[in-house]
Amino acid sequence: MAAVQEMARWQRLLFEVEREFVRTLPTLIYRVGEPELKYLLCQHVWEAAGHARFLRERGRELSGFGAGEEVSAELRRLFDEAVLADDGYVALAGFYSVLKPALLRAYRHYVATTEPLADWPSRKLVEEFIRDEERHAREIAGYLTVPLPRATHAWCDHLGAAVSAFGGFLGERPSASLPPGFAWEIERRKYAHPLTCNRGVYPTCSSVFSHDPKETPIVRPWLVDPATDARVIRIMVYVWLMMEMDAVDYLATVFYDTPGAPFDLHHDLARHLWDESRHSQFGFRQLPRLGVDLMTVEHSLDLYHILVRMAPHERYAMMTMEFEAGSFPTKATVMDRVRELNDFEADTLLAFDRNDEQNHVRYGHRWLPEIMALAGETRPVDEFVRATQEKFTELAARHGGQTPHGLPPERRLTGEKILRLVANA
After folding, report:
1. pLDDT for residue 67
2. Residue 292: helix, strand or coil by DSSP?
3. The domain at 2-187 falls in which architecture?
4. Residue 15 near residue 52, CB atoms below 8 Å
5. Which residue, 53, 121, 148, 158, has fewest beta-carbon neighbours within 10 Å?
6. Could you report the per-residue pLDDT of 352-404, keeping only the tens digit for each?
7. Is 123 buried (19+), middle (13-18) or exposed (0-12) by CB count in 10 A?
8. What does the domain layout of the chain look like in residue ranges?
9. In the 8-state DSSP scheme, what is residue 128?
10. ω before 404 within 30° of 0 (cis)?
11. Which helix (H) or strand (E) covers residue 210, if one does?
């Protein structure tokens, strides 16, 4: 059984590496600014979760994989180190110029070493993962600054030395001693989420919702007013969907803050994250087709500013039990109105958004008690959710509404401008 046990041991190591990517890669999402880059990172997190799940399922069929899901302390330290780059783009380079290539080398080593027929099920999985990793490298390449700044080179050298000390993730290379003067950043400081998220070149504001058509693009009464032109509602709901970037940014903070979570919890969080990213892309891609200049659409920051000051189980409770569960009545009305336009694409996107949100609330009922337990929270769920809603209201009074409009009224998209845009279409 030695050959089986060796392959199982390698699969266990690969599972742990992919699991650490799921836990730590989301820390890049709210620190980089380009929406397309955020979307790609969410996709890569979801694909890493899929890789880890399949490795776990296959590994459990082999003698020697192990029953638990724990990650070795040495591997966890490496990934904890990787998130500590002071700049999000330096961290991005560390992950995609050092850690992801190391994973790709490990997968290729597995394929080169395993017996093709005896280990056919594992080999076919790994071959698929290799194609994913090669695609990930191509997709991110354009976001890595060339030539890399000196600080980025230094950080990549630092992480590279740590990987070399492993001898690669599978020990496929001779291990090297850490260079003289090497010091682990994680031994002297802890990672902390930034108090604001990065939206790159896009203008920002506190919220895109209000009751004033001269102030914001989404006018709350108009969404449910039968007299509102359905074309106006369609544009407003696409703005709403694009602003699910808020959910992308604050949900991404929960992974790192729950290191003791079972893998299945992080797997479903990764799916949730990818869903929110897809929803944001619905708006990001459809608004220009309806004549909206994306540089006139301000990005709201209030939810991130408030939720990052709350504990991870509180963030997750607000997202699933308040924001998503509370959105169903309004979104049902919106869907009915948009159907009047006979816009098949809009109907399809809204239907998938609604279906995904229902799944997210199910995730909340499944996983909120477990995240609460990880935090030592012993109150009944309903009591905890009510207390968290009250805490959110208190924090919103202090930390909400602090981001001024990034654009003057004559330049930013507002409800009044949407009316004119529809009238002139």
Report:
1. 87
2. coil
3. Up-down Bundle (1.20)
4. yes
5. 121
6. 999 999 999 999 999 999 999 999 999 999 999 999 999 999 999 999 999 99
7. middle
8. 2-187, 204-423
9. H
10. no
11. strand 209-210
